[in-house]
Amino acid sequence: MEEREPAKTTATKGTDAARKIRAMVKNIYKSCHEAQSQGKKVAYIMVSSQYDEILRAMDIVPLPTENYAGLCAAKRDMDRFLTKAEEDGYSQVLCSYARIGLGFDSLRKELGGMPENAPDGGMPLPDIILGSSGVCDPRFKWFQACGRFMTAPTYSIDVMHPPVHCDLNAVRDHYVQYQKVQFEGLIAFLEKQTGKPLNKDRLWETIRLGDEAWRLWYESDRLRTAKPCVMPSQDHFNVMVPAYYYSGTQEAVDYFQDLVDEVKYKVENKLAVVPDEKYRILYGGGLPPWHTMWFFNYFESFGAVFVIENQYRGFDPVEVPDHVKDPVEYLAWRAFLRYTARHEQAKANSGNPVVEKILDLIQDYDIDGVFFHACRSCRATTIGQIHTKNMLGRYSDLPMTQFVSDMVDLRDYSEAQWKAQIHAFLDAMASRKK
Fold first, then answer.
1. Taking the domains of the chain in order of start, what are their residue ranges?
2. Cα(5)–Cα(205) distance, integer angstroms
3. φ, ψ dihedrals at 281, nearest 5°
4. Each residue of 255-305: pLDDT tens digit?
5. Omega of the bond prior to 242 within 30 degrees of 0, cis?
């Protein structure tokens, strides 16, 4: 890869709400340090593990390790942690989120304290480590490996959903019950660690707040179907923070209400991201390149705007049956319904829920082209991209492109190659419009 001078990594945002996120990210790590000084438990967590409201109900402060890796990349302060993990024997093809986390933990242990000038004050030693099977295997193997650097008790759960071809009515009770048992095991573990029982009334309250925040997030995204685009994808990759890392709090609800109000105002007044919108692009999949988010603005300089995305996407709202009166069972039902929302639609059409989701987004947001990001170290979001792209080609004639780098490891990125691909993609969309 060619040598580069230090460059701007972040993208210019389209909404005031997205500009507020930096302070919320700083507060994640500040809150963890403060919590420990107050005798509260801090837990390493994984995003999309469906246990967020349980933690909030038990006054356990979540410490998102994946988010910290993205922060390090945005600050261009990831190399020392990546290098340390590789010196410890971890392969460069291992998830770079995990490599940053393990490198950070290793360096902190070696130094006997926080690495100097760690972004946002660094991650404190956790009291609890909570993994899950959701999405990929590093979500529990990474935290098992943390045992080399700390003695915090570790617990992992399964987050399960059935294959597309199955009869949902026949398997639903099994999957819901299995997920409930997983949550109950987690709760028993947390009660032992905190020395206090879960208050189910408090859990219902955090669930209510969590559902309301996600409903408002969904509402803000539906407003983005408007033309011209008023909120671009770089904003989405910021506003996901309160949804995932503040879930179950009033702060998240208030944030998304403000976002809805702002987006609605922009739609009503046609306050476009770019004055002359020529192309509407869908971010079709793959973790974003946190080290090089400015590329969104580079597209915009040619009138091309990323108007919606299928990564770190909020779940569509689901309706849990009224007969469910136990909050833990509610969480199990909600997880099942979230992960099977497009199974029936897929069986009737492409056979692939991801393809169905993207086809819906193409239609709803009047898309001109689809962009994929293949992350060299993220198997979960990269394997299957070509297959998805090929399947989409059976149902759509839109130009599609796949860029290659990594979500946080800059060594897998070439600015010259990306710019060449960007112009080729723009040409393809222009040709189709003609």
1. 16-213+227-433
2. 49
3. -110, 140
4. 999 999 999 999 999 999 998 999 999 999 999 999 999 999 999 999 999
5. no
